[in-house]
């Protein structure tokens, strides 16, 4: 039974759904971390009504400031062991804009790549002496192979994957499990403008897979599961053929 | 542009879909995005939830609970919250929605806009009867707070108002106390329409939930299965838990799996199985209220052409003849339905200007779309309903003529004054001219 849970990027649709599932399982304490205090309050209130026994807290943080991230993780760890830390924030940049204005590319790399790495590192540092606990980071199928349609986002998510892989190696002997989640396109507000939104995976399904993977202590999951196969194929398409694909 | 279909899957249409992100930003989104139409879970069967070529505002981001008072059972929540989630959160806390329709996979906003009903209409009325207050955002930027005390006319227009009076942002609902998630149910086969009316009448005083399945393929008199149930009261009760295993209808078959031979077999089996099982049983509220919620996307069963639901209500005075005539027409047409539901409504007058429930008897049937043949059958059924002084349920409708709508809903003109000029649906264009 999970007890104390920290969710970074708690206003994201997937994170909210995970929080509800953990609340239904009887989690006793939630700390919701985000950028906007007002939105966090609304989500915390919702969670509190769903789970009257649990305590909910909110914290704001400058997500791209390594010092602020370190301090936040330290402060939360001081209050006791953390059972689950979910790092879920991100924003999908416009690839064309990333190409024509490198400042957009930089910001996308910061928020989708470096920032999750900061949080993962900072929490891993505070959790490594625990005998149990889960650190869960949301990556993306986009990180599996650079593609013309979204390689800036893909590069950031690839960075997250390598970083988490290294942390997993480093913490292999500890009691802490590290899970990298790679969702395929999901019906979140982040993808609302994209074609085929209605064919994407429902948030509920992705969140259910994440909660299940944490429970099972999995290292890497694709959600929905079919993306493991799809991405295996995409990773293995020879460059000569890949170059002709508009994906 | 995304392809969107309604529950009946009669057609897929391009829509510009926007997700309303949260209640602070949503009024701005609809103001900037108008004209458009609110879209919840798309459980309306026909065209009430469609706006082909135009914009849809999906309420999936408006899914927060805002306040709950455990003393009074009053819940304030955003309009995109699912009835299923309210039940799952509050049943363990000893509270429940007083009224739920045949699926819990609908939003609070959709349940208000269609003024949905359940099996306990004679006790609790419809969904709209449970509403204390709403917050309505209009596309001109106005925010209307409506309750019984303040702007009550706006509440009456919005309950059953098909989403046309503005976008419902929040609602305050009354929950009812329950001791457990279970009901004690009784299953009684009946062999004639008269027997149905006797059972319905005899059950009204002692039973909260009443409903019946009717075999519309039977050659002789109507036969069916009458179900009635009460909530189990008292602490320390136990009963079966619902299965969490969901099955999904995995694909859309090229032709409807519901057809004359399969219906004949199904209806025979269903009748005899239930006759054999007749008697008392204890059931969880989920399978009792929403037997199809465990078969996801069951609407695909009807194949590529989709299906219609035809749901009418006729006043008690004309009910016996009107129901019998409808069943005769259906039998004669050779088209039929295995989800045929016959039930009585209570005497309560509806709260909404366009609410469907009224004192009388309602019959609901699904028909695979067989084009002209199906539409001709509906025209014959329309005449029976019209002559009986009844009306059709807009939430289920994809084709009723505007004259029948006007005849069935005498407060339509009053309603039109409350419409939001920035909101229209395929249904409003068909039935109200724009």
Structural class of chain B: alpha+beta
Question: Could you tell me the strand content of chain A as a percent range?
Answer: 5-15%
Summarize the largest interface: chains and residue counts: A-B, 19 and 23 residues
Contiguous uncertain segments of 5+ residues of chain A: none
CATH class of chain A: Alpha Beta
Share of helix among residues of chain B? 25-40%
Question: Can you walk me through this structure?
Answer:
The complex is a heterodimer of chains A (247) and B (434). Chain A is an alpha/beta fold and 247 residues long. Chain A has a single domain (4-242), classed as Rossmann fold (3-Layer(aba) Sandwich), CATH 3.40.50.720. Helices cover 49% and strands 15% of the residues of chain A. Chain A has 9 helices and 7 strands. Chain A has helices at 13-24, 37-50, 66-78, 95-100, 102-127, 151-170, 203-216, 226-236, 239-242, and strands at 4-8, 29-34, 55-60, 84-87, 134-138, 177-183, 220-223. A 7-stranded parallel β-sheet of chain A has the order 3-2-1-4-5-6-7, sandwiched between helices. In chain A, α7 (203-216) links the parallel β6 (177-183) and β7 (220-223). In chain A, α1 packs across α7 (203-216), α3 (66-78) packs parallel to α5 (102-127) and α5 packs parallel to α6 (151-170). With 434 residues, chain B is of the alpha+beta class. Chain B folds into 2 domains: 69-178, Uridine Diphospho-n-acetylenolpyruvylglucosamine Reductase, domain 3; 182-401, FAD-linked oxidases, C-terminal domain (Vanillyl-alcohol Oxidase, Chain A, domain 3, 3-Layer(aba) Sandwich). Chain B contains 13 helices and 21 strands. Chain B has an 8-stranded antiparallel β-sheet, sandwiched between helices. The longest helix of chain B has 18 residues, at 260-277. Chain B is globular. Chain B starts with a strand and ends with a helix. The mean pLDDT of chain B is 94. The chains are: A alpha/beta (247), B alpha+beta (434). Chains A and B meet through α1 and α2 of A and β1, β2 and β5 of B.
């Amino acid at each position: 039974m999970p007890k104390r849970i920290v969710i970074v990027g708690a206003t994201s649709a997937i994170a909210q759904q995970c929080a509800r599932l953990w609340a239904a399982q009887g989690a006793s304490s939630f700390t919701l971390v985000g950028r906007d205090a007002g939105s966090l309050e609304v989500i915390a209130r919702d969670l509190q009504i769903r789970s009257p026994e649990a305590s909910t807290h909110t914290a704001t943080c400058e997500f791209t400031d390594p010092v602020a991230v370190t301090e936040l993780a330290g402060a939360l760890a001081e209050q006791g062991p953390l059972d689950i830390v979910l790092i879920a924030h991100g924003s999908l940049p416009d690839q064309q804009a990333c190409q024509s204005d490198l400042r957009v590319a930089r910001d996308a790399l910061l928020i989708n790549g470096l920032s999750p790495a900061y949080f993962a590192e900072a929490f891993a540092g505070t959790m490594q002496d625990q005998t149990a606990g889960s650190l869960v980071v949301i990556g993306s199928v986009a990180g599996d192979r650079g593609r013309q349609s979204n390689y800036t986002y893909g590069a950031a998510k690839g960075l997250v994957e390598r970083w988490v892989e290294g942390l997993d190696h480093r913490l292999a002997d500890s009691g802490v499990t590290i899970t990298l989640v790679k969702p395929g396109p999901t019906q979140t507000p982040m993808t609302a403008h994209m074609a085929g939104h209605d064919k994407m995976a429902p948030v509920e399904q992705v969140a259910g897979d994440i909660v299940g993977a944490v429970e099972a202590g999995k290292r890497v999951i694709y959600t929905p599961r079919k993306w493991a196969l799809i991405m295996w194929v995409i990773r293995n398409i020879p460059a000569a053929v890949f170059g002709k694909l508009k994906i | 542009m995304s392809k969107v279909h309604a529950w009946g899957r009669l057609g897929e249409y391009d829509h510009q879909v926007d997700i309303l992100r949260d209640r602070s930003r949503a009024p701005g989104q609809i103001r900037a995005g108008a004209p458009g139409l609110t879209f919840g879970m798309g459980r309306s069967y026909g065209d009430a939830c469609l706006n082909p070529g135009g914009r849809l505002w999906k309420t999936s981001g408006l899914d927060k609970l805002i306040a709950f008072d455990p003393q009074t059972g009053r819940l304030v929540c955003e309009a995109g919250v699912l009835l299923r989630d309210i039940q799952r959160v509050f049943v363990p806390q000893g509270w429940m929605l007083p009224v739920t329709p045949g699926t819990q996979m609908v939003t609070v906003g959709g349940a208000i806009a269609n003024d949905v009903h359940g099996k306990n209409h004679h006790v609790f009325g419809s969904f709209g009867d449970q509403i204390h207050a709403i917050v309505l955002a209009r596309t001109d930027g106005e925010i209307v707070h409506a309750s019984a005390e303040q702007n009550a006319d706006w509440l009456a227009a919005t309950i059953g108002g098909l989403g046309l009076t503005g976008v419902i942002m929040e609602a305050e609902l009354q929950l009812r106390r329950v001791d457990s998630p279970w009901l004690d149910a009784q299953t009684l086969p009946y062999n004639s329409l008269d027997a149905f009316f006797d059972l319905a009448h005899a059950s009204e005083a002692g039973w909260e939930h009443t409903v019946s399945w009717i075999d519309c393929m039977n050659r002789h008199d109507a036969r069916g299965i009458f179900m009635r149930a009460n909530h189990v009261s008292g602490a320390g009760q136990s009963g079966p838990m619902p299965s969490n295993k969901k099955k999904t209808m995995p694909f859309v078959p090229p032709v409807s799996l519901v057809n004359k031979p399969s219906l004949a077999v199904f209806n025979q089996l269903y009748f005899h199985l239930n006759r054999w099982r007749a008697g008392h049983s204890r059931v969880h509220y989920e399978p009792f209220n929403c037997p199809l919620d465990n078969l996801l996307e069951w609407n695909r069963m009807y194949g590529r052409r989709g299906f219609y639901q035809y749901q009418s209500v006729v006043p008690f005075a004309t009910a016996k003849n009107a129901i019998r005539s409808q069943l005769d027409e259906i039998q004669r047409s050779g088209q039929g339905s295995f989800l045929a539901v016959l039930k009585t409504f209570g005497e309560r007058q509806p709260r909404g200007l366009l609410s469907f429930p009224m004192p009388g008897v309602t019959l609901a049937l699904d028909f695979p779309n067989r084009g002209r043949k199906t539409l001709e059958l509906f025209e014959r059924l329309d005449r029976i309903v019209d002559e009986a002084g009844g009306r059709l349920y807009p939430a289920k409708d994809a084709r009723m003529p505007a004259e029948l709508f006007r005849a069935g809903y005498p407060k339509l003109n009053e309603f039109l004054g409350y419409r939001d000029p920035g909101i229209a649906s395929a249904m409003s264009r068909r039935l109200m001219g724009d």
